[in-house]
Amino acid sequence: MPSFKIAEVAVEGTAYHFDKPYCYMVPDDMKNEIKPGARVVVPFGAGNKRRRGIVLAVENSDDMSCKPLLTLVDKQPLISEEMLALAAWLKGRTFCTLYEALRLMLPAGLNLHITKTYKLDHKPSEAEFLMLSPDEQCMLRYVSRARGPVDRESLAKAAGLDATTPLPDLLVQRGLLVCEDSVFDHSPEASARMVRLAITQEEAEELLESQGEITKKQKSALKTVLDAGAATVKEVMYFSGVSQSVITALVKKGIFEQFEKRVYRDPYKGIAKTKSEPETLSEEQQNAYNALVSRYRSGKACASLLFGVTGSGKTQVFMRLIDDVRADNRTVIVLVPEISLTPQTVARFYARFGKDVAVLHSGLSLGERLDEWQRIKDGGAGIVVGTRSAIFAPLKNLGLIIIDEEQEYTYKSESSPRYHARDVARFRCAYSNAMLLLASATPSIETFYAAQTGRYELTRLDKRYGNAKLPDVIMVDMKNEIATGNNSTISRRLAQEIEKNLENGEQSILLINRRGYNTFVSCAACGHVLTCPNCSIALTYHAANHRLMCHYCGYSIEARTKCPECSGSFLKYSGTGTQKAEQAIEELFPTARVLRMDTDTASGRYSHERMLEQFGKDKYDILIGTQMVAKGLDFPNVTLVGVLSADQSLYLNDFRAAERTFSLLTQVIGRAGRRASPGRAVIQTQTPENEVLRLAAKQDYEAFYKSETAFRRELLYPPFCDICEFGFTGISETAVKNAAHDFFMRLKDAIESNKNIPIRIMEPSPAEIARIAGRYRYRIIAKCRNDKHFRALVASVLESCGKSPLYRKVSVFADMNPLDML
DNA sequence: AGCACGCCGACT
DNA sequence: GTCGGCGTGCTC
Ligand SMILES: [Zn+2]
Ligand SMILES: [Zn+2]
């Protein structure tokens, strides 16, 4: 009987309910080269649209019913067997599609591009040509001169029209052009772009004066760039309140030009060729290292928690372990939160391990990222340092995965595939019999629980370097402050402490968790709160650009003085953000050098870092900012930390609010005591008696852990159960609501017929933020046990609802153990 | 998500 | 009689 080669392919663009490996016939000319892990292009669906795919397996079969592959892109597989298995695992765990999972494992630069293109159907006759409009003639001439098929945009451009013109398709209808999908191997550059004037300043000024030459929004953007000289696209959007399309329009008109500023310095530049010697470990470090290395030597997959306060020298322990693992010729992944992945961190690894280190993070250009990825895959680097997605680095023979600051939320992906890097790390460690090492001073409750119950080994490292003392913590009751006539966001006590620091030439850090100037604006007459038209979120006033902004969808309008509801002219601006706090401090201490740091001041890739560096060099007295000031670099001269309001993050409607607040406060308070003389921390709150605040003040993680686990055991929250969130979003509220209700019924039915699966589901409800960017959001929360029975139940419900018309305009997702419940 | 197939209304 | 509405089902 005849036998064919059949390839099983993960196809792009499938929905969950019809995602599975699809079989394709392998044409003879690809027979010998095709291997699992290679990219292919396949025809899919009734229209045989070309789609990207990844070969999962190659088999012999006599089944002739399948379509043939169109293109085999790679002769050598790009994705290893381990990663193919990981993709299947991710699908089972996170309810994504196979292709979505596989995409995580390839750098963006290897994404093929399939574009609709046009070419001549036949050489047009003179008569045919003369029948056409001048624009059409223009296009036809362009196509006949081109070497290959032409994409829509260049075609439109050739005739001086914009890409939405229907002319190309009209020419197809008349049988002059044919349309096809073409595959391009290299993607256009990503969008971290800068713009500057492509015309002279005088011309720009003339344009601003002119009538009708450019639109009002374009003028606004032009003015911003004229003032700034050059700016990132993001900055222009922020300061002129326009969307990206306005800027691209100006680029197309030849008024702006785009250029790429290399924000990254050459990673190897200035790094000594000779490797730095291992530092000697303190006794405590040595003990921790001994414990960890003997666990690693077991040769079995295992996991450890290194519970160590910041500044206890975790990194030296990591490096010694890495030495051992590399000596065995096994490889290492080190994950760090985005904010800690600074040139200093990187330089430390380069200095110690040289070119054996590869760095993967979002600041690399597409090309740089591809180069590093290739180098890792080829075995040119055995140590990968990076952020969340580096967990998919194409290393072979893994021996160790380190996740530093393991409680950080950035390790959980917020979009599909909704994976947690920690879980992926566990998979990879199991596959390679490697060790997983989690490290933190304030581990997630789940992780510490696992360490307490023996699933992870617990190793401590709790002496601070040089025996630095804990800071004195002063709680300030803001209720008293208001009662005694101080309405400022800065309490008298905090002001005194800042004053002291200024006198002594010591530095202070102030944490405030909201950006902007005022956090909301309301009408004194009718009480109307100004909200974003696309989101159920109050608009924030930004003084820097005098606009009201939405932090969720980017919407902004010019700040106003009249109520849009009742036209009343008393709009109350209230709530304090970083900008207002900065102003308050400047008014209180006019001579102090104040640095503000939030996502608005720090938009360039390295600007945070540069700001922190300046602060570290004593160029400023006071640093005010959001979370980002709590993490990252060490500042020996900081002796005072102020938390302007501990309350808003503490009283969020989220069972993890306490954990998150504790972790943030502990980190920021810890910043005040990193040298011999003890520092001070001032915490402003309406509830000074709150236990979480008290324990954070004492930096007592274990007491916090005890009280928090008691609470979670009582009310059944992780780690005593798992939580699965089902999310529903869409433009129409009734459609979203109906879908959520239907899903709820399906879940109930499924539970009814699987009585042995422990689940508790809540009625569907609007999400905490009921609408974002024009989409309504509903959700169902389930308390469950994340085992294969439960996952199979979820998978079957998701599959069944994909077929129902109720879900036509609604997107549905399942998120296992989401980290924030907003 | 797209696309084809199929079964009812109103319009030449 | 048939053109086109969109409900239903399938994607190797
Ligand atoms: Zn009003
Ligand atoms: Zn918005």
Automatic annotation (TrEMBL):
Cofactor: Zn(2+)
EC number: 5.6.2.4
GO molecular function, one term: 3'-5' DNA helicase activity
Single GO cellular component term: primosome complex
Keyword Nucleotide-binding: yes
Residue span, Helicase ATP-binding domain: 295-461
Residue positions binding Zn(2+) 2: C532, C535, C550, C553
Positions of Zn(2+) 1 binding: C523, C526, C563, C566
Any one Gene Ontology BP term: DNA recombination
Cofactor note: Binds 2 zinc ions per subunit.
Oligomeric form and interacting partners: Component of the replication restart primosome.
Protein name stated in the entry: Replication restart protein PriA
